[in-house]
Amino acid sequence: YINASIVFQLLTSAFPGLKKLQREEGEAGRRKFNQYMRLTALAFSLAQALGQCLYVRDFVIDGFSVPWLTSSVLALSAGSMVVMYIGEVISELKLGNGTSLLIFVNIVSSLPSSVGQSIFLANQADASGPGASTTLAVLAGAFFLTSLGIVYVQEAERKIPLNYAQRFRGIDNAGRGGRGIGSSSYLPFKVNSAGVMPIIFSSSLLSLPGVVARFSGSELAANAARAVYPGGPAYLPVSVGLIVFFNYFYTFLQLEPTDVADQLKRGGASIPGVRPGTATASYITTSLERMSFLGSVFLGLLATTPAIVEGLTDVQAFRGFAGTSLLILVGVATDSARRVRSELLLQSYSKSGDELYK
Q: Rounded to two decimals, what is the model's pTM?
């Protein structure tokens, strides 16, 4: 499903028809767009299930056969569709992004064993090393500081002020024009507006050479898979490069400066000191580029942190500490908490309105 999302995010920027279907045709268009994405996810799951079954065919106890291959591929694909359905149900319940939450649960479920393994490795460290207590203190401190930095960057935003020339202005008791409620507002741009999606996209693409190698048996693909596997020579630069690319791409995919400028112009809003239209779009583009650069630097540092900590402690960072996993943990947790607070606030407003009109 994630691979299908990547494909369709790329296709929307290349084919205006898909973009129009997703953004301009309302709920019916979005349902149709999501249906196309589900069918693509099914095709990906069938292909990946076939590759997995062919990879383990030499280990089948009852012997490899076409009926076994067919039933196994269908079972694996059906499981993928069930997981996709669960993710969509979670999204419909407005608890957050369903796919991200499922990944979050998977990471959390492995934390106890990962922490235990890290403690065991720290105790097994050489006597010439810094010692188990020092190693564990460094790991715990790095975990805390990284989590603190993620929360800070995830919540950081730049607020661009907006003026509404056509907004109604009240009249005070002296007959003068009052400022009125909401005569000015702001346009928020987050430093890391793409959230965890660049990490998820990057992880999916990094696993692609391994899938190709298992399916085709190509030595070239196997070498590429080993190179981009965690700990491989090309893993860190390729991972950082993909994260930076997807962060920049996904930022402008979510917020297109021209569309934002047109919406502001139609709503009678303007940025102080900037003319509506093309100048506003150029200003927003520059702001997004700067925010995207800062977000990319943050994600790049986050990707290199585990390697630095492992070099200091000689202990492999446990899975929950890895930069990508930790960003997903913190990002999904904060996003879900924000969504729940918003729903609770909306319900309180609804109850207040009902009591007002009783």
A: 0.66
HEC states along the chain?
CHHHHHHHHHHHHHCHHHHHHHHCCHHHHHHHHHHHHHHHHHHHHHHHHHHHHHHCHHHCCCCCCHHHHHHHHHHHHHHHHHHHHHHHHHHHCCCCCHHHHHHHHHHHHHHHHHHHHHHHHHHCCCCCCCCHHHHHHHHHHHHHHHHHHHHHHHHCEEEEEEEECCCCCCECCCCCECCCCCCEEEEEEECCCCCCHHHHHHHHHHCHHHHHHHHHCCHHHHHHHHHHCCCCCCHHHHHHHHHHHHHHHHHHHHCCHHHHHHHHHHCCEECCCCCCCHHHHHHHHHHHHHHHHHHHHHHHHHHHHHHHHHHHHCCCCCCCCCHHHHHHHHHHHHHHHHHHHHHHHHHHHHHHHHHHCC
Predicted local distance difference test score (pLDDT) of residue 169: 47
Question: What is the band of 321 on the pLDDT scale with cuts at 50, 70, 90?
Answer: low
Q: What is the mean pLDDT of the chain?
A: 76
- Please tell me the predicted confidence (pLDDT) of residue 354: 56
